[in-house]
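Subgroup meeting minutes
Present: P.N., E.W., G.H.
Scribe: E.W.

1. P.N. recapped why we're keeping a running log of single-chain structure predictions: easier to compare across weeks, and new members can see raw inputs and outputs side by side.
2. G.H. added today's entry (729 aa).
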Amino acid sequence: MKTSGLYIQLFSIHGLIRGTSPELGRDADTGGQVKYVLELARSLAANPEVAQVDLITRLIVDKAVSPDYSRVIEPLSDKARIVRVQCGGRKYIRKELLWPHLDEMVDKTLKFIKAYGRVPDVFHGHYADGGYVAGELARIFGSPFIFTGHSMGAHKKKKLREEGLSNEDINRRYHIDHRILVEDRIIKDAEQIFVSTNHEIDKQYALYANFKAGRYQVNPPGIDVETFYPHYATQLDADAGDESTRQARVVLLRELHRFWVSPEKPFILALCRPDHRKNIAGLIKAYGEDKELRAIANLAIFAGIRKNIVEMEENERNVLTEMLLLMDRYDLYGKLAIPKKHDFSIEVPELYRMCADSYGVFVNCALVEPFGLTLIEAASCGLPIVATRDGGPTDIIANCDNGILIDPIDSREIATACKSILVDKDLWQKFSQNGINRVQRHYSWTSHCERALEAITKVRAEMPVVLQSAASAKKTTIGKRLTSVKRMLISDIDNTLVGDSDALAELLSLLNSNAENICWGVSSGRCLAKTLHILEEQGVERPDILICSVGTEIYYGATLSPDKGWLRHIGYRWRPEEIRGQLEALDFLELQEPEKQKPFKVSYYMEDDPELLARVHELLQIKKIRYHLVYSHGEFLDILPYRASKGKAIRYLSYKWNIPLSDIMVCGDSGNDASMLRGDTNGLVVANYSKELEPLRGLRRIFFSKHKYAAGIIDGMRHYDFIGGEEHD
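Output recorded in log:
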């Protein structure tokens, strides 16, 4: 990869994205956004200012979908590729169910970035889930965060409520309230929000509390005019198109003629996902209820790709079933074509041209259309349009003057608009020519990318400048720091890091002088506030990493950013209320003070007696409760999630930041530290250790220093060759 240009990461999370023959309309996740991000990636990469574009999506290994979605890397061009990252298992799940797994996507993208060796200059999220992941990564790395919403949850919820759905039904299906909360934060955090139309700003983003905090730029997407060329091109140039295009026309004609009794008529074309918001039923009703329209033209509806309606998702199944019932109700046999599949990359452009050759019309009567990419595709081929006035089509027709806007719930208005274009050849010709000429002027990917890069350049110039010298390594954003260092040192605080002020000062000086290669942190049983308090008392600047509350919380750097991926990870099957309820029966346990109880830690006082500890284990195991128990200093009993401990937190950090355990040194003095001292890390026990650690003596990769407190840590650093010099005597 070139290092002189921009490295941009785009995020479209759901996973059903591939560079060849994208399955548009396969389900609710495969709408226009798929085509948008693919063409955006290729177009950005074609700009000389850009070194590399990675489109990050979810890796899927599932027999129910194509094996194409299991390729880790798929080239799109010489400077663009799809990068697939596994999260939430391997099976395909719809995007509304991915929310619990997005922090895993953040963590694994971090691993990819470190392995790749270059931090992106820009993180650009698409849709709310992609915005969440991009925003988290941008915050970690201190890079610009760009967002394109495509559609917004608050507007969707408003429309669904107007259709009679309850809040409970909407949240059950779409998890809409959580999405809205995420989007509201995105609006505030994003350095730049790209929208396709002014309608998005006025009717969608304006519904959010943080609306006025957003920075918006109208930057409509483009289309590939080499693919969506005018319908008359083959009449003027025998070389226009290729053999695959001609074959596509033959296949489409054969398919459509299966349905139509009079295939010579002009036809009305609709092309969309089988989603009730696309209002396919409204178009069929408009056609079925108007005898004159049925006499003038045929109707063709390409509603995604289907094999067996019964096996489809509820939304898609209901829409397709209603289409068939309406076909029967209005007796549209011989007039309405509902093909089962199409190849987007080849057949759809030819479908627009076939419709234009018939002097037909393209219809999008969605209840709301955020933009309407199919409208500019049809226009570029010379096909006049009829489109909903609710959304982006208002801007498209204002720019192109190539069709008529309608009220999508007024079937008569839909039918009248179609007839006015179909019967008036002069109007048809005007709309056709305007569409061809003006799409190239207003909807070009080249101009879109130029505007986007201009905005990105401005945003980057406004971001704080971060020095990269070794002396200032500690001042870099935590993401850039932890992806550049090779080693990590984690120490307990009490009686390990602190206890000898002179040795502590020497240790901190060593860590600062080696900051370019070593990051460091503390691990404590204390909560965050008390951990910070003792560090401040000792005059210790905030370290790179803070592991608090016995390994149940991880924070980073000066900003104390919480590691959300860790919280998601340890929360699996954690049932604190049940633990408290079961242990109430043990009168030898005393709950610690409320401020010592944390969301992922239940804490008791208990006298030092192995038999009492065994009774706690026995009771929890009988109830099949998953837990991790830590007993320390002869009185403190902490019950944590099964996945949580200081040691597991360190192994998680090793995995997330791609720092091998063999390059991590851990330091402790008590039983509280035992879990992090065991394993493949470099363990250091200071000379003033508690008796609870005596069983660790002699274990591989655990060094018992003869020196106390921070002096013992320095001794361990030399022992493990973390710094040069001889071991202390």
